Amino acid sequence: MEMTFRWFGTGFDSVSLKQIRQIPGVEGVITTLYDSVPGEAWEADKIAALKSEVEASGLKISGIESVNVCDEIKVGTPDRDRYIDNYIKTLTNLGEAGIHMVCYNFMPVFDWTRTELARKRKDGSTVMAYTQEAIDAIDPTKIFDSLNADCNGYILPGWEPERMAKVKALFEMYSDVDEKKLFDNLVYFLKAIMPVCDKYDINMAIHPDDPAWSVYGLSRIITSKEQLLKLVQAVDNPHNGITFCTGSYGTNLNNDLVETIYALKGRIHFAHVRNLKFNSPTDFEEAAHLSSDGDFDMYAIVKALYDTGFDGPMRPDHGRMIWDEVAMPGYGLYDRALGAVYLQGLWEAIDKSAKNK
Ligand SMILES: [Mn+2]
């Protein structure tokens, strides 16, 4: 396991590489070309510039989150191959730059969905939260406006204003994309990119849908153990793997986090580890990483990753906003740094116990 930290890039992130470098045990960042347009190939010189900026700070790039998959590929439009070729170019350029892990998702229209970006907790910290009631009460084309006021001036990943401006057209584009079609389109995409992944040893790591159920009638397919197993078997290449995101996959209380980690042994290439606190099965808020602050057994989750030989990058995920920090919701420095250190503490204890047996 390699502890990492997500970084959106200079100009997009309130956290600096220098600050990340000072978090104990963190040597790598998970980053992206934040202003890239889904569907277009990433140029080698832009990747090189990003890489040298990260390395100049004493860190390295441990993986990319995300190389977004454009709607044409997800919908399966007649011109999708052109976009898949661009994705292959991006992977080639990343591979040439020595980058070996790429996170992506295959969710229609919306990326992750929350209904509050700053719910106040008893201790005065704020967290992102979700209630199904709030989702059901709001027109999907308005949800962006309702969240935008709370994002502290930062652009949330997956919620870019240009994209949200055409949300009605996106809904139309996906109107006949049922779960089977979406899944088939994902398999088509993965089969097309596996040769370049094999050539450069790039691990593709799909992010679970968040929340792990259908929102606004849109198809969602990365939601359960059965679906994850179906995917890894449909394209049975070790480079076709999973981002195990506890806070996304775990939104659905029917999902057994620990059991799923064991079931996916060898196919988890990236881990997002965070905790959720449930008020009801469809009303949850993000918590501090500590087991006692939420409903997940973080020890059992980390132990399952350890026991299955997980050796990829791990990162703390969304944190609370604490100590008056002003940052992109979920992506402040302080609480995620606490999470990074806590997770490493669990890992060290599990490792030493295993070795002393
Ligand atoms: Mn995640």
Low-confidence stretches: none
* Count of all domains: 1
CATH topology: TIM Barrel
What percent strand?
Answer: 15-25%
Indicate the CATH class: Alpha Beta
Count every helix, treating DSSP H or I runs of 4 or more residues as helices.
Answer: 14
Helicity range: 25-40%
Structural class of the helix and strand makeup? alpha/beta
Task: Write out the distinct hetero groups bound to the structure.
Answer: manganese (II) ion
Describe the structure.
This protein has helices at 17-21, 44-56, 71-75, 80-96, 132-137, 143-148, 161-165, 167-173, 179-200, 225-234, 246-249, 257-263, 298-307, 334-356; strands spanning 2-6, 28-31, 60-65, 101-104, 116-120, 126-131, 203-206, 240-245, 268-273, 276-280, 283-286, 313-316. It is built from 14 helices and 12 strands. An 8-stranded parallel β-barrel has the order 1-2-3-4-7-8-9-12, surrounded by 5 helices. It has a 4-stranded antiparallel β-sheet with strand order 5-6-11-10. It has a single domain (2-356), classed as Divalent-metal-dependent TIM barrel enzymes (TIM Barrel), CATH 3.20.20.150. It binds manganese (II) ion. Residues 207, 245, 247-248, 272, 317 line the site of manganese (II) ion.
Write a concise synopsis of the structure shown.
This protein is an alpha/beta fold.
Main traits of this protein?
alpha/beta; 357 residues; binds manganese (II) ion; 4-stranded antiparallel beta sheet; 17% strand; 14 helices; TIM Barrel
